[in-house]
Amino acid sequence: MSMHVEHNQTDSRQMAASGLRVAMNIMERWGATREQMGKILRVSASTLARSKAENGSAAKLDDDQLDRISHVLNIHAALRTLFENPANLYGFVAMPNQNGFFNGRSPLEVMSDGSFASLYETHRHIDGLRGAQW
Fold it and tell me: Domain Antitoxin Xre/MbcA/ParS-like toxin-binding spans what residues (predicted)?
């Protein structure tokens, strides 16, 4: 039985590491700096570096970090629904936005303050742009 638990923990860590790498790749395409990535995902620079390394594995991620990764992936999914053009798909997050929530800042700037609420609300606002498109 304990072998089964260890196997599931290993699988979970591998999935978390994969999710972190995908989220980092998306944020790189958005033009995010490593510092911004660290704040958005609440992970250290060393965790980002280990994740980026070939066949690298991430440190054990907590539920908050996994939720943050999920929000980044879901923002990307919403943008893929909205835009076919890669320039818009990846550029939108870095563009200043006049929506009341963003108040002239880019979604990337808002998320980069590091608070979970900013990331959540950014996801909620971008997802809301889809309307009934999904």
Answer: 78-131
Contact criterion met (CB below 8 Å) for 58 and 47: yes
CA distances (Å), 71 to each of 21, 53, 111, in order? 14, 23, 11
- Per the CB < 8 A criterion, the answer to whether 93 and 106 are in contact is yes
Q: What is the dihedral of CA 100, 117, 81, 97, to 10 degrees?
A: 30
Q: What is the mean pLDDT of the chain?
A: 87
Indicate the pLDDT class of residue 1, thresholds 50, 70 and 90: very low
133, two tokens: 């498109």
Q: Residue with structure tokens 């039985």?
A: 1
Here the tokens at position 22 are 């995908």
Q: Tell me the three-class secondary structure of the chain, residue by residue.
A: CHHHHHHHHHHHHHHHHHHHHHHHHHHHHHCCCHHHHHHHHCCCHHHHHHHHCCCCCCCCCCHHHHHHHHHHHHHHHHHHHHCCCHHHHHHHHHCCCCCCCCCCCCHHHHHCCCCHHHHHHHHHHHHHCCCCCC
Instruction: Find tokens 């909620």 and name the residue.
Output: 124
